[in-house]
Design a protein that fits this description.
Layout lengths: L3 H16 L7 E6 L8 H17 L1 E6 L4 H13 L4 E5 L4 H7 L7 E5 L10 E4 L3 H15 L4 E6 L7 H14 L4 E6 L9 H13 L4 E5 L4 H11 L2 E4 L12 E4 L1
């Protein structure tokens, strides 16, 4: 999903356009990440998007990185208390938080990316994607390229939202190769979106079971799957940005 940065920037600017004149020089935008950004390409794109919006609208911009659920709530409250005009949140981790905080801060606009909530207040806006469509096409590619008739996918956490990736991938595989089996495994643990060690373990295990095409949808854990691909010589598929430089000769597709 290499175009995600552009989509995110558009979402930010659209939200900004509701309340922020182009000449404003005293606006404050805050981006709150659900986890530490580190090497997580998706979270980096969020930061890049809000920085572009800040530059366009002459706003001061800050990023508040979270480590825990308590940090997320504290960071959102801090953004409101410090006078943020726009608060950008990435991920399902903020669904309950934004429901709780937004009604108490009607002068702050909230943009939640990758999720949407029901019965949201007027100051809450959503930016969502059809990630299942691209994941289906990744599965088509894997189903056509597999030589073992065994493919796999490593997901961060076994939740309905991430089945939009894993299930769509499996459907894509089956659409072109009914004989192929699809091994779905989850990173889990305390930090499923930023645990390359556990992600690598899952990828190595499914490769040992025969999978020669493995899709990774683990965000910060993707690098563990890339390491496994280089060490065990299998093909890997990734998300968010062009990951080819991280496993040269092994990344078949980045969607």
């Amino acid at each position: 999903m290499r175009g995600l940065k552009n989509w995110l920037a558009v979402g930010l600017l659209a939200t900004a356009a509701f309340t922020v004149p182009a000449s404003a020089a005293d606006k404050f935008f805050v981006y709150v990440s659900p986890d530490q950004i580190g090497v997580n390409a998706f979270l980096k794109l969020g930061q890049a998007g809000i920085e572009e919006a800040g530059e366009k609208y002459g706003a001061d911009v800050e990023t508040y990185e979270s480590r825990t659920a308590a940090d997320r709530l504290e960071n959102v409250n801090a953004a409101v208390n410090e006078g943020a005009d726009i608060v950008v949140l990435l991920g399902f981790e903020f669904n309950d938080i934004v429901k709780q905080v937004a009604p108490t801060a009607p002068d702050t606009q909230f943009l939640i990316v990758d999720q949407c909530i029901d019965d949201r207040p007027d100051n809450v806006h959503c930016a969502v994607f059809r990630e299942y469509e691209a994941s289906y096409l990744v599965g088509v590619a894997a189903g056509m390229l597999t030589e073992s008739n065994k493919v796999g996918v490593v997901g961060a956490l076994d939740i309905p939202f991430l089945h939009r990736y894993t299930d769509a991938y499996a459907d894509g595989v089956k659409s072109v190769n009914a004989d192929a089996s699809v091994d779905i495994r989850w990173v889990g643990g305390e930090n499923p979106f930023a645990d390359p060690v556990r992600a690598k373990e899952q990828a190595v295990a499914m490769n040992a079971a025969g999978a020669d095409q493995i899709f990774t949808a683990t965000s910060g854990g993707d690098f563990g799957v890339f390491e496994a691909a280089k060490e065990k010589d299998f093909d890997v598929y990734s998300v968010d940005v062009n990951q080819c430089p991280n496993a040269p000769g092994h990344v078949s597709m980045s969607r």
